[in-house]
Design goal:
This protein is an alpha+beta fold and 434 residues long. It is 28% helix and 27% strand. The chain has an eight-stranded antiparallel β-sheet with strand order 2-1-4-5-6-7-8-9, with helices on one face. A six-stranded mixed β-sheet has the order 10-16-17-3-18-19, sandwiched between helices.
């Protein structure tokens, strides 16, 4: 499975240039309306751009909901760079940038968006002195790729085409399998903020023969998960009962066609229905899970979604406000449990909980730092300054999370604190030894 270990994103809404070094679980911690969601949206936007058609890319480069209107970065191109590994031997870096669509009020002529930069580098770590080998190198002037051992073969490319996508369709290209693997990267997201009852409720569909009840695919997935991997299903339920102690058992059921009375040679057979029942300790009988609290439904939906992402080989699963509907005292139990379900998938989530800092390592926590220009800036604490920060927090009778939030809200008064305590902000493109 291809992994993503680092992702850089910029030129999107109020995101100038943010670099996230992904751990198994990584959090973006900041107050409301700072830019946490914009980071997740930018990553999903980049994935859609790579996997879309030329027409999709043209539309995305015109998407006014994503184009920055921040005075400082309004003219910056969108840029995405990912770094990771194919296995223990090969590392890769892939990057692309494009200029957004422009329509000046002082001009009647519009300027369409265009891809202006693309790079693919591969590093063989089995060599004595490994360094990145340039496979694709695209600039505003030209696009070249490695066809014979050197990246010097020119390829004709449209403004809305990606070189890697075009070359992935050439079977004779030596790096076609590499391109295919990179294009197979999947980014997923889970919405646990919306009402989760929609995943447990049946819907009525009107057919020629009358009304038909149809459930969301989530209930069917729970049934199939228990059938196909009972051990993992039981691990999930064990985590759920730890977080919701009143739950005794959870039983996904299928109302099979075997229970239906069906005439022979029918032109259409209604599909099987699936539901989930739960037995709570205080109750004398089972009830549909949709009768449970919203928080309980959110937890089950989150845990099952993590398993689903892992089994599908999703590289990054993104979740907003992971602590939603979780009591602060249970947050640590949830964070300890999720890695048991993730497999090779990495979890990137947002939070504004001051409790989070108690449960994550310093390099798992990207803190949103204040800025006068409204540009989001996420960085981690310097490892060498962690003890100092903890001492300062203790002196003020604050937990680390409480002190970090005070720092986020008050560091505007002393910019030196940011440079002293936090890692330096990365440059837009630096660091590649290509």
């Amino acid at each position: 499975m291809v992994s993503i270990n680092r992702i850089c994103i910029g030129g999107f809404r109020n995101i100038d240039h943010s670099e996230i070094k992904l751990q198994q679980m990584t959090a973006l911690l900041a107050p409301n309306n700072y830019g946490k969601s914009n980071i997740l949206d930018a990553i999903m936007f980049a994935s859609s751009f790579v996997h879309g058609t030329s027409e999709t890319r043209r539309q995305l480069m015109r998407d006014f909901t994503c184009i920055s209107i921040n005075s400082k970065i309004a003219s910056e191109p969108f840029c995405c760079e990912i770094e990771g590994a194919f296995d223990s031997v090969y590392d890769y870096v892939y990057r692309f940038s494009f200029d957004w669509y422009q329509q000046s009020p002082n001009s009647s002529a519009a300027i369409e968006g265009k891809i202006i930069d693309e790079y693919l580098g591969i590093r063989d770590n089995s060599k004595e002195k490994p360094k990145y080998r340039t496979i694709i190198n695209r600039t505003k002037e030209s696009a070249k790729y490695d066809a014979t051992g050197r990246c010097n073969k020119t390829i004709q490319i449209m403004d809305d085409e990606l070189v890697m996508v075009k070359l992935s369709n050439i079977d004779s290209w030596a790096f076609m399998p590499v391109a295919k693997e990179l294009l197979g990267i999947t980014i997923g997201s889970v919405d646990i903020i919306a009402d989760p009852k929609q995943h447990f409720l049946p819907r009525k569909m009107v057919t020629a023969d009358g009304e038909q009840l149809v459930y969301d695919g989530f209930t069917q997935y729970l049934y199939q998960l228990r059938q196909e991997d009972e051990r993992l299903f039981n691990v999930m339920i064990s985590i759920l009962t730890t977080l919701v102690p009143t739950i005794q058992t959870v039983n996904p059921v299928r109302f099979s066609s075997e229970l239906k009375k069906i005439d022979k040679d029918v032109p259409y057979e209604l599909p099987d229905l699936y539901d989930v029942y739960v037995k709570e300790r205080p109750n004398n009988q089972t009830t549909p899970f949709r009768f449970m609290s919203t928080g309980s439904m959110r937890i089950l939906f989150l845990l099952a979604s993590v398993i689903h992402a892992s089994k599908r080989g999703v590289q990054i699963l993104m979740v907003e406000e992971l602590e939603n509907s979780i009591h602060p005292d249970l947050l640590q139990s949830l964070l300890n449990a999720i890695p048991m379900l993730l497999g090779d998938t990495k979890l990137l989530f947002t939070s504004h909980s001051t409790h989070l800092a108690k449960h994550l390592a310093y390099n798992q926590l990207y803190v949103g730092l204040p800025s006068d220009d409204g540009v989001a800036d996420f960085r981690i604490l310097k490892q060498t300054k962690l003890k100092n920060v903890l001492k300062i927090a203790a002196a003020g009778e604050m937990a680390l999370g409480e002190y970090l939030f005070e720092l986020m809200l008050s560091a505007e008064d002393d910019r030196r604190m940011i440079d002293v305590f936090f890692e330096e902000k990365p440059k837009r493109k630096g660091g590649l030894d290509d």
